[in-house]
Specification:
The complex is a heterodimer of chains A (270) and B (341).
Chain A lengths: L1 H8 L1 E12 L2 E12 L3 E5 L6 H8 L5 E7 L9 H7 E4 L11 H6 L14 H13 L15 H14 L4 E5 L7 H18 L2 E5 L3 H7 L2 E6 L2 E6 L1 H4 L2 H8 L3 E6 L2 E6 L8
Helix pairs in contact in A: 5-6
Chain B lengths: L4 H24 L7 H11 L11 H36 L11 H20 L3 H23 L4 H26 L4 H8 L9 H19 L1 H7 L3 H6 L4 H23 L5 H13 L3 H25 L8 H22 L1
Helix pairs in contact in B: 1-3, 1-13, 3-8, 3-11, 3-12, 3-13, 4-5, 4-6, 4-7, 5-6, 5-11, 8-11, 12-13, 12-14, 13-14
Classes of the chains: A alpha/beta (270), B mainly alpha (341).
């Protein structure tokens, strides 16, 4: 069945009937998701809708029910090292250990490629150097990670994830600490890495406008369920945003994509 | 921080030379009238294919080989083990206050030793090492089981809190027995404050395998310990099993610690202060932190023993008193310098 094989090869992520619990509470229900290789899917949804948990399921960090497959491994069951070579996660609030330099932090990304009790090879160092150069981190390599600004740190953690040379990159609110300029820089950078290197990106994002600008496809989560899945213009409607977020917005269609603007309550001033 | 291989080798080599010098000083200090030259010649004489006359009398040789030497080697083992175990504990728990006694090994050992002395009387003192070893392992086992049964998201915090509870419980029982048999108070206290024994090589032989295995397993995990610094979630996303690593390293560090505690009593301060001082000097990377902690811990304990033997000679101070009295101010100096730099 060549058609089936072909579709398998071009699929980066498959979830069927996926559920997950945290602290005894079910936070994901019956999630179906298929992501093509090389796509950018933006996960959107209100606080607590299950975006982070879904990313953690894909990275094999929380146990789940149902069928999950990410770049030919089954996260959680396929072995931590194999999973970490296939999937990298850029966490929302990275832990910054004291006394560790930027270069040392980025090098940790090579962990799944280095034999358990072995040491780095020349290839590992070359990958780290390339990522550092690509993210323009050379001026920071010797600095302590604790001394960085929020934006610099976010780039360092992204560099660590890219040093894992993953097929699927999971971003959890990648730009939450960044001003509008750095937001654009980081997202553009990830996007160019995606088009260059067959990278598949799944990004949980709060900012609906950038979610729509960078994602070919939006997946909207609400209370642990997928309530909408499709092109940004289909998912981001005034009614649906009102329903799911309890927000009053207007949407504008711009050449770069759909933009979502918050509105103030008109009765407030009366 | 120290990045070039040359500087790394220089620092480690320097630390090794300081350790050997401290060992030599410790062998020489005392009333037997040994000279450095004679000691070195006598050591050389023991090497294969070397035959030199050191000029030491039979009695001096007996003191050198059966009293001074085993004591110095025991000091090296105890200091190295406590410092390396402390570094491992601080690494897996990401907690600067962690030391090898964190999960109750000291309280359990203290309770075991007290029971041996109270129940066995004079004969019980011989059973103290075994009782202390068993008590220490039991206490940490109880801590882990309790922590596991509670579980939760921040499991490492739960385990530390379980350790506090187990330690308080063991201390309470120990105090109860000490009050009941106040004639044993002196013996129990002298054991708890720590001492390096002088009865030949038997302690060294018992402790050595535990220390070798524990240090080797911890050293193999040097890179994994670096990864643990970014927290359980991120460490797991980088391909390791934080909970498994923590359990394994706590097991071997506890085993090694219980072994040295059973031989030398509760020597405080080395396990917590040495890794911190070393970290302030060379940074948190375990590739340097572990070997350097090993050598600094050993040096520190050997020199503390020299002071313990000589300050109030011919009577001995408990070595735990010396490690705390010297260690605390030394640590504050290191702390001030590193923050000021």
């Amino acid at each position: 069945m060549p058609a089936d094989l072909e579709s398998l090869a071009s699929t980066a992520v498959t979830c069927r009937g996926v559920g997950a619990a945290r602290g005894g509470v079910d936070v994901l229900h019956d999630v179906d998701l298929t992501v093509a290789t090389g796509a950018w899917v933006s996960l959107v949804g209100p606080n607590g809708s299950g975006k982070t948990t879904l990313l953690h399921v894909l990275a094999g960090l929380v146990p789940s029910t149902g069928h999950v497959r990410v770049a030919s491994v089954t996260p959680g069951r396929g072995g931590r090292r194999a999973t970490a070579r296939a999937v990298a996660l850029m966490p929302q609030r990275p832990v910054v250990p004291e006394g560790v330099t930027v270069e040392e932090l980025v090098r940790l990304g090579r962990t799944p490629h280095i034999a358990r009790f072995g040491s780095e090879t020349g290839h590992d160092r070359a990958v780290v150097d390339r990522v550092i150069e690509r993210l323009e981190l050379e001026p920071f390599t010797r600095r302590f990670a604790t001394d960085l600004s929020g934006g610099e740190l976010q780039r360092v953690v992204l560099a660590r994830a890219l040093a894992q040379e993953p097929q699927v990159l999971l971003l959890d609110e990648p730009t939450s600490a960044l001003d509008i300029g750095h937001q654009q820089q980081v997202l553009e950078l990830v996007d160019s890495m995606r088009t260059e290197g067959e990278l598949t990106v799944i990004a949980a994002m709060h900012d609906l406008t950038s979610a729509a600008q960078y994602g070919d496809r939006l997946v909207l989560l609400d209370r642990g369920r997928v309530v909408a899945d499709g092109p940004p213009a289909e998912v981001l409607t005034v009614d649906r945003i009102g329903q799911v977020y309890g927000a009053r917005v207007e949407v504008l269609d711009r050449p770069a994509g759909r933009a979502v603007l918050p509105l103030r309550d008109p009765w407030k001033d009366a | 921080m120290i990045t070039t291989p040359r500087r790394r080798a220089l620092v480690l080599g320097g630390a090794a030379v300081v350790l050997l010098a401290a060992m030599l000083v410790s062998i020489l200090v005392g009333p037997a009238g040994l000279t450095p030259q004679a000691v070195l010649l006598d050591i050389a004489d023991r090497l294969p294919f070397v035959d030199v006359d050191s000029g030491l009398s039979t009695r001096q040789q007996a003191i050198l080989w059966n009293i001074r030497m085993p004591r110095v080697v025991l000091g090296v083992l105890v200091g190295a083990m406590l410092a390396v175990a402390g570094a491992a504990y601080q690494g897996v728990f990401r907690n600067p206050l962690a030391d090898p006694y964190l999960l109750g090994v000291s309280s359990g050992a203290g309770l075991g030793a007290t029971l041996a002395i109270v129940v066995g009387g004079a004969a019980g003192f011989a059973g103290v090492p075994v009782a202390a070893f068993a008590g220490g392992l039991l206490a940490v086992g109880a801590t882990y089981a309790l922590g596991r049964s509670v579980g939760g998201v921040r499991s490492e915090v739960v385990i530390i809190l379980a350790g506090v509870a187990v330690a308080a419980f063991a201390n309470a029982i120990q105090t109860f027995f000490m009050q009941l048999h106040d004639d044993t108070l002196r013996q129990v206290y002298s054991w708890m404050l720590g001492r390096l024994s002088t009865d030949g090589w038997s302690d060294v032989v018992v402790v050595l395998p535990y220390v070798v295995v524990a240090v080797a397993v911890i050293a193999l995990h040097r890179r994994t310990l670096d990864v643990m610094a970014v927290g359980d979630v991120e460490a797991a996303s980088l391909g390791i099993h934080p909970a498994r690593v923590r359990l394994l390293l706590v097991c071997v560090a506890t085993l090694g610690t219980a072994a040295v505690v059973s031989a030398s009593g509760l020597i405080g301060f080395v396990g917590i202060v040495v890794p911190h001082a070393v970290r302030l000097l060379v940074g948190p990377g375990h590739r340097m932190l572990l070997p350097l902690s090993l050598m600094v811990g050993a040096t520190f304990l050997v020199l503390a023993d020299v002071l313990a033997r000589s300050v109030m000679s011919p009577s001995e101070l408990p070595i735990g008193v010396v490690t705390a009295a010297i260690g605390a101010p030394f640590f504050l100096v290191v702390l001030r310098r590193s923050r000021g730099a």
